[in-house]
Write a structure and sequence with these properties.
Two copies of one chain form a homodimer. With 333 residues, the first copy, chain A, is of the alpha/beta class. Chain A has three domains: 43 residues, 434 Repressor (Amino-terminal Domain), CATH 1.10.260; 117 residues, Response regulator (Rossmann fold); 136 residues, Rossmann fold (3-Layer(aba) Sandwich). Helix content of chain A is 38%, strand content 16%. Chain A has eleven helices and twelve strands. In chain A, strand 1, helix 5 and strand 2 form a beta-alpha-beta unit. In chain A, helix 2 runs parallel beside helix 6. About 2% of the residues of chain A have low confidence. At the A-B interface, helix 5, strand 2, helix 6 and helix 10 of A face helix 5, strand 2, helix 6 and helix 10 of B.
Chain lengths: 333, 333
């Protein structure tokens, strides 16, 4: 982030030979090792780095803003989440500052500093980094899905475990005998990981042998899914499974395309259920695939209520909202 | 917008018996009739209404924020526009405040007031209201597409006229003999209206009889398109046109669905070209329909450069960026 030649936090980090996060902590009064604090303060003096003075003089005054951090606003799930967060904040008399972080920790930290220094009323974060350690306790933080090291951060998510169970039971109800599972997890732990737990639990409950692809990298997504399908193809060309629960609608859509290219009919040969409930154009009722839908407006409202709650001590550390199944053409019903 | 029992601008408007916009103008020092000013000031005193003091004391200090107003973040065009605006602002050292206005003037005015009072560095607006009169000259405003009464507002848009011409010529190149046009315009004038001008110009240049549906209301969208198609059906069941340029990808997608339900094959019987360049899930390369694509990242960057430009007097009042055709399965190539 350029600030017309003025030294930046990055310059301070380079000068002090410490990580950017350490500088951020010193500036925000979060405890760090004494030697680090001394180094950072020396670098700040040497470079004449100015902490954003816009807000420094306003310590007692709230800005009526809440910062939302999402990876991007192009993915329809994140975009829709941002939309409903803005609506709920506005209803409660607050404005939204939006950070599309690209999952870059440095950018997330810059927005957290801005929120802290401008006396923002709080931060709602959907990140792929552990930002817990970069938020002073005085700045209310609510996490969507992600588990932060910061023990006092309340978390909001869909009931992913129940969603995993629901997907398997729906596939069985639609006539499947052997439902498989495909997932590409984030390396950072979060509630979404429980989709797999739900799948495994339902398999066990119904005496089914679990068959799944579960990796931490979505590099070569198409190759990985293609290999998984080929690996489970029998000598007669048929598949060892007749239904697949896929961890997101996007991955389910890719899986459908691969299966169709291999000559399988959907839903006749293989039935597919995704997760999220993404609709075409965001404004039609048409789902891309049959899906376990997340209640995005309710999730957003819950995050906003929590970040603005007066007594943070009363907040549960985890709040799960119910998901629901919707038919989207890739199952029999 | 609720502010925990504190009187709002709306209360002031009710007390003074004037429109909300008038209160906003008085607060922001935009000239109004003397009698209105007196009424509003009396109401402010009577209700003890506090203009946002967060920023009132900071008149000389910029907040390093720019406000973006869009109708919503669910429509993928708006969401993507917001995404690239945020990126370009961040590159330039600014944070984005996002307003999803729902095309509600009152909400737009509240955000404009917040921007003005918090010493925001500017506003980028994609609205369906004429907000030109609600912005003090000191607050830089850049309009995407919409024409405001405010004469000093620079406007950024795609070259919609060239896009209209390009759509017709592409349909002819793909073998169409009679391209039709379908549009649902906003009642507020904007650059997008020129898609129709481009269509009409290309028809004239190629000696074609224009055939179009052009209305100001998108109520009963499906019925209106269905009636238009039926009206141009000949006794033998064939259509009077063999290609349609539709004003947005969303409307083109709806038109494709209607034609398929009526038994027409796309692109064999009718070829369709939309406008916008919306991709499925925002992250795939798959278009919903063949389309005249708007250059969203470049449009966003241009808006940001203009809103932050030092010498506003040097800005052109209108900047048009080139569009491009992309095949999306609903044309022969």
């Amino acid at each position: 982030m350029k600030r017309q030649n003025a030294p930046t936090m990055k310059d301070v980090a380079r000068e002090a030979k410490v990580a950017l996060g350490t500088v951020s902590k010193v500036i925000n009064g979060i405890p760090v090792g004494e030697e680090y604090r001394v180094k950072v303060e020396a670098a700040i003096r040497k470079l004449n780095y100015e902490v954003n003075t816009y807000a420094r003089g306003l310590k007692m005054q709230k800005s009526n803003t809440v910062t939302l951090i999402i990876p991007d606003a192009v993915n329809p799930f994140y975009a829709s989440f941002a939309h409903y967060i803005e609506s709920a904040l506005y209803e409660a008399g607050h404005f939204m500052v939006l950070c599309c972080s690209g999952a870059i920790l440095e950018k997330e930290i810059e927005y957290l500093n801005m929120a802290s220094q401008n006396q923002s009323d709080g931060v709602i974060a959907l990140t792929y980094n552990d930002i817990g350690g970069h938020v002073p306790e005085s700045l209310p933080l609510v996490s969507f899905d992600r588990i932060y090291s910061n023990a006092f951060t309340p978390r909001v998510a869909s009931d992913n475990f129940a969603g995993g169970v629901m997907a398997v039971e729906k596939l069985l109800e639609c006539g499947c005998a052997h439902p498989a599972f495909i997932t590409f997890n984030s390396p950072y732990p979060g509630e979404a990981d429980k989709r797999k737990d739900g799948y495994l639990h339902a398999c066990s409950a119904h005496n089914l042998e679990p068959v799944y692809l579960s990796t931490l990298s979505d590099a070569n997504l198409v190759c990985q899914i293609t290999d998984f399908i080929r690996h489970h193809r029998r000598a007669d060309g048929s598949l060892a499974f007749d239904g697949i629960f896929v961890n997101t609608d996007y991955n389910a859509y890719i899986t459908c395309n691969i299966l169709r290219e291999m000559g399988f009919r959907i839903p006749d040969d293989v039935q597919i259920i995704g997760f999220d409930g993404i609709t075409k154009f965001g404004i039609t009722k048409d789902l891309y695939v049959s899906s376990i839908c997340q209640p995005i407006p309710e999730l957003a409202r819950t995050c906003v209520n929590m970040v603005l709650a007066k007594d943070k001590g009363l907040l549960p550390s985890l709040t799960l909202l119910p998901v629901s199944y919707r038919y989207g053409g890739t199952t029999r019903k």
